[in-house]
Write a structure and sequence with these properties.
Oligomer: single chain
Number of domains: 4
CATH class of the largest domain: Mainly Beta
Strand content: 25-35%
Largest sheet: 6 strands, antiparallel, barrel
Length: about 500
C-alpha cells in the first residue's frame, strides 16, 4: 500500500532522481562496448584512408611545388639538357648498316658460284669515328659473311661501304665510306666509368633509326660470359635490342665509351642487361685494323684456369685472386722467364690480375718486345720475374686468303680425331669469292689431311700462295669438293 507520509525534502529542492535498475545499466555498458568496437572496425580504416589520401596529396603538392621552383630556377631544364646535348653531339655520327648476301646458284659441286640476286638481310648500327677518311666502327657479327654492305647516314641517304678489317676475337670491325661526312663521334675513356653513371645507347633497333635509350652502368669488366674471346664488357640497363649492335654507348659528355654488342636475354629482347665493348679496348682494336688491317696482341704463352677455394687452400694462397698456370708453352715468353705449371700469376706490368680473363686482356695490350714485371706465387711464396712480351701469332697466309679455322672436340668426329671447321670468312676475300662459308669442314690441304690448327697452319705455310691453296672441304650437309683459294683464275674443280 502506497505511503502518504511526508517526504524528507524541502519545497524548494528538486525530488531525487530515480535509481536505474541494474539490468538497464548492464545494457548501456554493452551498447557502449559495441559502439566502441564498431568505431574501431570501421572508423579507424576510414580515418587512415582519409589521412593517407591527405598525406599523399600533400606530398604530391609539395613535390610539384618543389619541381616548379626548380623549373623556375632552370635546374630541370639543365638536367634534361645534358641528355639532349649528349644525343645531339653523337647522333649525326650514328649510322644504320644493312648487309646482303648473294644468292648462290646450285649445290656446291655444280661449278663456280654465280650471283643470282641477293638473299638475306642483316641489320645493325655503327658510329663514324673519322669524318675525313670515312671510317665507321661496328660489330664483326653485323658484317660477317656479307657480300654487300650499305650504310644509311643520318640524313637518310644510303652509301656503299667497304670492309677495312674485322676482328672476330673482340667482335669489332671497321668500314669505310667514300662519301664525305661532316660529323664524327669522339672517343671517351671507359676506364673512368663507374657503376651508377648515366649512359645513352644510340642505334637502329628493329630498323628504327636514331633511337636513343638511357640507363646507368650496371657493372664493368664483365669477362666471364664467353661471348667473345677477348671481353671486358660494360653492363648497362639502357635498352639494347636487335639492330643496336655496333652502335655507340655514350656518356653525358657526349663521348663514346663503348660499342653496344650483345644482350643477355631469354626472349631475344631487352631485359635490362645490355653489354658494350669498352672504348679502352675498342679504340686499340680499331686503330690496329685501320693501320695494319689486323690486331697485334701481346703473347705470354701460358694455359691458365681460375682458382677455387680448394685450390687456394692447397696452394697456400692469401686469397682467390689470380690465374693458375696449367701449361707453359715451349719457347714462349713465360717459359723463358722460368714460369712453371702450378704458379699463380697475381700481377702483370704493375696491374692486379684477379682472374684468367684479366690476364689475357692485360697481356694483349702490352707492347711487343717490352720487358714487364710479373708477380706470382709458387708453393705459397710470392716471387717476381721479368718477361719479354712476344706477338700473338697469326698465320700471314690465312690473313691474305681471308678465312680462319677452329678446332672442334674429338668427340664430334666419328674417327675420334679433332676436326677443323671454317670459323670466319672476310667479305670480298679470295675465300669468299670461291664460296667458302663458316661451318664448312676443312678435310685436307692438297693431299695432306689436317685435323688440328697446327697441322693446318703448317700445310698453308708450305703452300705456294701465288698458285693458290688447294683445299678439300665438306659442307654441313655432307657434300665434298675441292677448291683453290687465292688463285685469281681458279674456281671449283
Amino acid at each position: 500500500m502506497a505511503s502518504f507520509e511526508p517526504q524528507d525534502f524541502g519545497l524548494d529542492e528538486p525530488p531525487p532522481r530515480p535509481t536505474t535498475p541494474p539490468l538497464r545499466r548492464r545494457f548501456l555498458v554493452v551498447l557502449f562496448v559495441l559502439c566502441l568496437m564498431a568505431s574501431l572496425v570501421y572508423g579507424i580504416p576510414y580515418v587512415a584512408e582519409k589521412s593517407g589520401y591527405a598525406w599523399e596529396a600533400g606530398r604530391s603538392r609539395a613535390a610539384s611545388e618543389a619541381l616548379a621552383r626548380l623549373d623556375k630556377a632552370g635546374v630541370v631544364n639543365r638536367t634534361s639538357a645534358l641528355f639532349r646535348m649528349a644525343t645531339t653531339a653523337v647522333a649525326p655520327a650514328v649510322v644504320r648498316i644493312e648487309t646482303r648476301r648473294f644468292r648462290r646458284g646450285g649445290p656446291l659441286l655444280d661449278g663456280p658460284l654465280q650471283a643470282q640476286g641477293f638473299e638475306g638481310l642483316g641489320l645493325g648500327s655503327g658510329v663514324i669515328v673519322d669524318k675525313d677518311r670515312g671510317f665507321i666502327v661496328t660489330n664483326n657479327h653485323v658484317i660477317k659473311e656479307a657480300d654487300q654492305i650499305v650504310v644509311r647516314l643520318s640524313r637518310g641517304n644510303d652509301v656503299p661501304a667497304r670492309l677495312v678489317g674485322a676482328d672476330s676475337k673482340s667482335d669489332l670491325a671497321v668500314l669505310q665510306i667514300a662519301s664525305g661526312v661532316k660529323v664524327a663521334a669522339e672517343w671517351g675513356d671507359s676506364e673512368k666509368l663507374d657503376i651508377g653513371d648515366w649512359v645513352l645507347a644510340i642505334g637502329s633497333p628493329f630498323a628504327l633509326d636514331h633511337t636513343v635509350t638511357a640507363g646507368i652502368v650496371s657493372a664493368t669488366e664483365r669477362n666471364d660470359l664467353r661471348i667473345n674471346e677477348y671481353e671486358s664488357f660494360i653492363q648497362t640497363d639502357a635498352a639494347i635490342n636487335p639492330g643496336n649492335s655496333g652502335g655507340p654507348l655514350v656518356d653525358l659528355t657526349g663521348k663514346v665509351v663503348g660499342i653496344n654488342t650483345a644482350i643477355y636475354t631469354l626472349n631475344q629482347g631487352n631485359e635490362g642487361i645490355g653489354l658494350a665493348i669498352p672504348s679502352a679496348m675498342a679504340r686499340r682494336v680499331v686503330e690496329g685494323l685501320i693501320k695494319d688491317g689486323r690486331v697485334v696482341r701481346g703473347y705470354l704463352g701460358v694455359g691458365i684456369q681460375p682458382l677455387n677455394p680448394a685450390l687456394v687452400k692447397d696452394l697456400g694462397l692469401p686469397d682467390g685472386r689470380g690465374a693458375l698456370v696449367m701449361e707453359v708453352r715451349p719457347d714462349s715468353p713465360a717459359a723463358r722467364a722460368g714460369l712453371k705449371p702450378g704458379d699463380v700469376i697475381t700481377k702483370l706490368d704493375g696491374k692486379e690480375i684477379p682472374n684468367p680473363s684479366s690476364l689475357k686482356n692485360q697481356t694483349a695490350t702490352l707492347m711487343i718486345g717490352s720487358n714487364v714485371p710479373l708477380e706470382f706465387y709458387r708453393e705459397g711464396k710470392p716471387q717476381n720475374v721479368t718477361v719479354t712480351i712476344a706477338e700473338l701469332g697469326a698465320s700471314p697466309a690465312v690473313a691474305s686468303i681471308g678465312f680462319s679455322v677452329r678446332e672442334l672436340a674429338p668427340a664430334e668426329d666419328r674417327e675420334g680425331l679433332p676436326i677443323l671447321v671454317i670459323d670466319q670468312v672476310v667479305a670480298g676475300s679470295p675465300a669468299a669469292r670461291v664460296g667458302l662459308r663458316p661451318g664448312m669442314r676443312i678435310v685436307a690441304i692438297g693431299s695432306t689431311p689436317v685435323h688440328t690448327k697446327a697441322e693446318f697452319d703448317a700445310a698453308v705455310a708450305a703452300s705456294n700462295l701465288a698458285q693458290g691453296i688447294p683445299l678439300k672441304i665438306q659442307t654441313p650437309d655432307g657434300q665434298t669438293a675441292s677448291v683453290r683459294v687465292g688463285d685469281p683464275a681458279a674456281g671449283r674443280r
